[in-house]
Design goal:
This protein is mostly helical. Helices cover 89% and strands 0% of the residues. The longest helix has 17 residues.
Length: 19
């Protein structure tokens, strides 16, 4: 499930950028 991993990474980066 590489797709979920990519999504998780993207979500994390988005949250950090929004922080």
């Amino acid at each position: 499930m590489a797709t979920q991993n990519s999504l998780n990474s993207l979500w994390r980066t988005k949250q950090v950028l929004h922080a």
